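Q: Could you predict the 3D structure of 5-methyltetrahydropteroyltriglutamate--homocysteine S-methyltransferase?
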Amino acid sequence: MSTLKTPFRYDFVGSFLRPEKLKAAKKAFEEGTITQEELDRVTDECVTEIVAKQKVAGYHAITDGEFRRKFWHLDFMWGFEGVTHEKDGGGVQFNGEMADLEATYLVGKVKAKVHPFVEYFKFLKQFEDEQTVAKYTIPAPAQMYQQMIVPQNIEQTRKFYATDDELIEDIGKAYQDVIKQFYSAGCRNLQLDDCTWGAIVGDAAKQRYQSLGVDIEEVKARLLKVNNLALEGRPEDMVITSHICRGNYHSTFFTSGPYDSVADYVFAQEHVDALLLEYDDARSGGFAPLAKVSPDKKVVLGLITTKKPELEDKDKVIARIHEAEKYIPLERLCLSPQCGFASCEIGNKITE
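A: Sure. Here are the predicted structure tokens for 5-methyltetrahydropteroyltriglutamate--homocysteine S-methyltransferase:
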């Protein structure tokens, strides 16, 4: 088993564009013209090929490109007891485009069961070697909590949970169980993808919560609580990182705003080993909030955009790294794209 630990000095978030043959196979499966076994065979082939490409590119972390899921977050939630989904009614408005998601909501108490993603990880792990280690990405506990309290879900959620604290408790415990499942399968590098922090930065979020009569500081405290609860009892030799995102659907974004208003919570107090942060354009603000990052964390600067095909100027990227160095030592800094290349099956407006 590989003993390499993420993040690496040059790294990536996780998802890749779905190959055309995988898209065709999924479409054929949905139309009933191929079996699950045939779809799995094509998916296995595509994962094998994307891992090989990662190795050729010189990456030390390998992922399955998130090829086995439709959405970066929802598919994972479907793997818990008490959660169901349906194809209609799950759209979310991004900047200039409606994201076609699936309605995901509670039909009972949240409990862990044998999670299908663990088997997906086992397939990936076989490709580890002396130079590479398997990393698996899942949505953060806060993402699942937020999913169940959005306006279209809160009434249904209250049938099973009278308070948010009760919901947080069950989500935290369910995640603890699944993290142990990943560990038992040999996973030593797990990444929590989290759009909840990115959704509450900036003045627009503050005004939105004020209009609802909700204290935004209480919201931040709950996000931190559920994430840290899920990490209680984690194995000491398991690296767990968090990627903080502002939305990445078909090259569009969900929110904008600097990290300043959440830094005291997630940068200073979240119990992860590293933060993968979006910093590819002005929407992310400056580097000053990095001064709040606790000394036990590394920071992966997402200075390379996955939203458009134009490549960044190398000298400008280097200069920005040195800007960040004013707030956090260079030895704790890494470099990566700001997000994945295909958070959902549709992917971004770029080519393979």
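Q: Anything worth pointing out?
A: The chain has one domain: 20-337.
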